[in-house]
Amino acid sequence: MGLASVASMADQLTEILDKGTIVIGVPENFPPFGSVGASFEHEGYDVDIAKLIAEDLGVTLELKPITSKQRIPFLTSGTVDLVVSSMGANPERAKSVWFSSAYAPFFSGAFAGPEIKVSLSEDLAGLKAGVTGGTIEDLELSKALPEGAELTRFGDNAATLSAYLAGQVDVLVTGNTVAAKLAAGNPDKALETKFVVRQSPAFVGVKSGEANMLQWVNVFVRHKKLGGVLNDLSIKWLGQELPVLPSL
What we know:
This protein is of the alpha/beta class. The chain contains nine helices and twelve strands. It has a five-stranded mixed beta sheet, sandwiched between helices. The protein has a five-stranded mixed beta sheet with strand order 9-8-10-7-11.
């Protein structure tokens, strides 16, 4: 076999194993998925996933903090080998990159303490719910708001959270990452997920055409899911059991 043929068979996974290093893009400042912690080290759900990927590959990890807008350009240009940055999958993005099976829950939901007995949007009748106006949560819940429910819209997340903490509303409607941060800072509230308003789980971004890399990442995700590792990370960073996640 000629050198040209051998070269054409080389793929990203083999190259990473040969050089002993992997560069993974993680969120620059999007807690609890990725941000600089109290120890001035990058930490979060996605950072832990990146560390596990490098560990299972047996290579050195180079973390590359990136913004949302940098995720696809950095992946397609080869600046990073993988993107583990709370990225949702959609048909438009799939024109440029490949996606693994989902590795993390990301959703908009209704949250409240154990004394509030709701499990569906219909159960909000007679209750006051607080939401940040104009958000996905607002738009989605408005479609299914039952008669007798009171939905109060606030100008920003800070005002919405303050209203919930002050008892002005019974139910907080927001993203799960916002709710997780609130729960961590206010354990007395015993915040629970009551129901999901909209699902948007996170997927690992893989450079288009790298079939072996995608296959390895999918096996990795399945292995960590079955072994309970993803559930542990979900509890650690998001304050909830890992829900059912879609596989691609």
